[in-house]
Fold this sequence. Notes:
Order of helices and strands: HHEEEEEHHHHHHHEHHEEHE
Radius of gyration: 21 Å
Helix content: 40-55%
Distance between the termini: 23 Å
Number of strands: 9
Strand order of the largest sheet: 6-8-7-9
Number of helices: 12
Amino acid sequence: MAGFMRFFAGRNDKKEQITVAKIEELFEYVRLKNMTAYGLTWKAGWKDKPYQVGNPPKTIPAHIWWNNDPKYAYIAIVENKPEYHYGDKGEFPIWNCPITTNEDHIKLINGLFSEMYEKFNLPDSLKEIQQESNKEKSAEAAPEQDKMNYDYSVLPKMAAILTVSNKQACSDMSLLSEGVSKFVTAHREWCEEMEFDDFGLGADSKTRREETLLIFAYWLAGYAAVRDPSKNPIPFGAYIDWKEETGDILWALGEADKNLGYGLDLQQIKFEGSEFTDVALKKTAEFLSAKGLSLVALDTQSDSYHLFVLRSEDNEQLTQSAAKAGFVFHSDFS
């Protein structure tokens, strides 16, 4: 993660020792939030869904990872104890990275973990999520009620607004509006890399909305998941990690602008370099507003941002169309 570079550079003032209890709190938070940011996927190695590799297969422990390539750091739970891994030669994933007992490595990883633990306001935030999860389970156990009927026919219209009417993007979103499974079949390799290959199998409206939302967000943002560039989507937006460097934010939006053609001239935005992501995005939004443009983020209920730039005059139409599909766009980054 680019935002953790100061730790990899040795600037770590965190003193706390991490415990198995704290690690499990973070695991549970990530699982309930279904996060997909770097190092935060609970799908690989979660205790009730073991991840196996090799022949014969071996089970990989639940773990969290950070990187400032070629340096990689991992923390796992093994035999009810924290297990530290560290490598500086691109040792990824965890089973390729050696266990470390080096005090400097452990101090670094403790700092990385503490930064993340504090960022997510644990353990208080976990208690809130667990309460909401329990409410949802109670609602699911209640008698079946009429479910929301989402209108996905608006997806091509939304794509037209966000991509300046790019024909390919609108065609892709038209296919998605017809059914998630149709999109997955057409873009199988990308969906497999994104772990979306089992999308389209759920029958309920809530599952379809969630799957449609994720595909729409990552595809139009141009998330490159496949080595073959021809199999990846064209970037009309930007996927931004919650702890992104300000220069990386401008670079990603600049790449999108190559396809949008707005001529954003983002180099005029001056950052100190220490701004948090939300502060940097607010400053960027203010800069774009002066050009008659809006910066919006599609809410995927995760810690990351899927950013898009559009003409401010199209904001209302985008919001109204998004509501029909059960989507929400945010433009307030304060």
